[in-house]
Amino acid sequence: MTPLDSPAPRFATDVITFYHPDFWGLDCADTLRDWAREHPRPFWERVMDALAEAGVTGLELTFAPGDIDSALRAFGSAASFRRELAARGLSVVSAFVAGSDAPDWRQGGNLPEIVADAERRAAFLSEVGAEVLVAGLPMRTTFGTRPPFFVDAAYMTRMADIAHVVGEAVSGYAVKLAFHTESSSTLWYERDIDLFMALTDPRYVWLCPDSCHIALGGGDPVAVARRHSRRIALAHWKDAVKPIDVELTIDETVFAQQQPYMTEMGTGIVDWKAWADAMSRTPGADIVLVELDEAADPIAALRAGRAVVEEARAWPPADDHTAHIERQGQA
Length: 331
Known about the structure:
This protein has helices at about 20-25, 30-40, 40-55, 70-75, 80-85, 110-130, 155-170, 190-200, 210-215, 220-225, 255-260, 270-280, 300-315, 320-330; strands at about 10-15, 60, 90-95, 130-135, 175-180, 205-210, 235, 240, 260-265, 285-290. The chain is an alpha/beta fold.
């Protein structure tokens, strides 16, 4: 039996899929955040109903309003939240640690705070039956900033040291610490990923590759997935228009600057057949997390994303993935 002949995976998505104000009949993102903060239970109930309607059974928590604290305000406890999800055939698969919502890894003296924050999240994940805590490395600085900031061996060694302590701490809750390959971060380029993986212990540090973000950095997401297949606990399935071809200003607007380079699954440059094949050979093969940023019609978008995945899994990968990459480079 080939990997793609294996049982179909569960489909999941992150809560950001539901952050478009149009879905809520509101005028802007700030209004949605304010409303969801005041009405956490109606927020979560609508998200859960939409997931069930789309046939997506897994959920990744993220920054507010779809964060751990919001779920606790809405339902009172992790156990109660888990029961509400289970009543709809749903469950949490992971939680994402947003940089703005956690202690800063660049600060040398706050390791106890970093570990305590991770353990709090891991305890919640354990209670709801999830196994992956997704984190990221700090962002780069805007090119040309003085003094310059280098992502070198010394920097990555510091990040690896922190990752080991955090990974060991959350392992006590049967939770894996997996690192996301965020655009403009210090874990973006293929070289960044390879260096960090080489410096970290595979027993405690896992990878959460994002097909879109790796492609935005000019990398080959399939090649990354193949090289690090045994350490992939979860992956984000997302498409890209093309690599980012300008130097972005790395500030609070950087995520909005990246948006024009992202696209609906199946309309961009990711080789989905080869990616699906690579993912089927990983420890995280049983979950496909379709990532959609702020979909105005999330139910339709999730169904469309599922269709792309199912088609990719229905056929063997292209014989020559290198040829696919070369064609995309010529486009």
